């Protein structure tokens, strides 16, 4: 049980670590277009991302695939940038009772695909933690669970901020999306250039 808790904490701390804020930026970009009333949809979206990164995290940890870590560290900010660009073209429904004209499945597919890339970014960290572990099943599962719990925390913080800006401060949804996505776009561009 202590091994489970150890890797659960490591996964949680890894995703919430402000020093590795690229993954936090990605979660913010994923959530930028959503209101707190769409929390179930957002959790499905983030879980699609988790499934994607779980696959490559497992494959990389088992040394079935190997990709240059410098290349992955370059591509991760590009996934953030592309998510922000998609946000700029998001069409908000005029009423909370109307369904948006956007195809939700496209966002799920992109989140899953980008999750594959982010999983490769997590893998070097996890491989260094695993060292000479006999079985990686429990550490891999608990690390992924910790990542998911951290992501859910970030999701709810972003949704609360979105709610505060749109519902309390009365900033238009589209304007707030542009502001938030624009900030994340700029930060991801700095990561690419730097």
- How many angstroms does the end-to-end distance come to? 41 Å
Based on helices, strands and strand pairing, what is the structural class? mainly alpha
Tally of DSSP helical segments? 7
Overall morphology: globular
Q: How many domains is the backbone divided into?
A: 1
Q: Which percent range describes the beta-strand content?
A: under 5%
Radius of gyration: 17 Å
Helix content: over 70%
Mean pLDDT metric: 90
Largest sheet data: none
Pfam family, one: HupE_UreJ_2
Keywords: Membrane, Transmembrane, Transmembrane helix
Protein name: HupE / UreJ protein
Transmembrane segments: 20-37, 42-62, 74-93, 105-126, 138-163, 175-193
Keywords:
194 residues; mainly alpha; 77% helix; 0% strand; Put_HupE_UreJ
Explain how this protein is built.
This protein is mostly helical. It has one domain. It contains seven helices and no strands. The termini are far apart. 36% of the residues are buried. Keywords: Membrane, Transmembrane, Transmembrane helix. It holds the Pfam family HupE_UreJ_2. InterPro entries: Put_HupE_UreJ.
Short précis:
With 194 residues, the protein is an all-alpha fold. It is built from seven helices and no strands.
Please write out the topology.
Blueprint: H1 2-16, H2 21-31, H3 39-61, H4 69-88, H5 104-130, H6 137-168, H7 173-193
Helix pairs in contact: 1-6, 2-4, 2-6, 2-7, 3-5, 3-6, 4-5, 4-7
């Amino acid at each position: 049980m202590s091994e489970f808790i150890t890797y659960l904490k490591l996964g949680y701390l890894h995703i919430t670590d402000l020093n590795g804020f690229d993954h936090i930026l990605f979660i913010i970009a994923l959530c930028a277009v959503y209101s707190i009333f769409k929390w179930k949809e957002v959790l499905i979206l983030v879980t699609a991302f988790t499934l994607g990164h779980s696959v490559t995290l497992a494959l990389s940890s088992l040394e079935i695939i190997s990709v240059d870590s410098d290349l992955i560290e370059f591509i991760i900010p590009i996934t953030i940038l592309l998510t922000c660009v998609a946000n700029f073209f998001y069409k908000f429904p005029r009423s909370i009772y109307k369904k948006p004209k956007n195809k939700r499945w496209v966002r799920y597919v992109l989140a899953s695909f980008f999750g594959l890339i982010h999983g490769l970014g997590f893998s070097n960290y996890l491989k260094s933690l695993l060292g000479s572990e006999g079985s990686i099943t429990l550490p891999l599962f608990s690390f992924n669970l910790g990542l998911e719990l951290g992501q859910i925390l970030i999701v709810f913080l972003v949704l609360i901020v979105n709610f505060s800006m749109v519902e309390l401060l009365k900033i238009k949804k589209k304007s707030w999306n542009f502001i938030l996505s624009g900030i994340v776009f700029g930060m991801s561009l700095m990561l690419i250039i730097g």
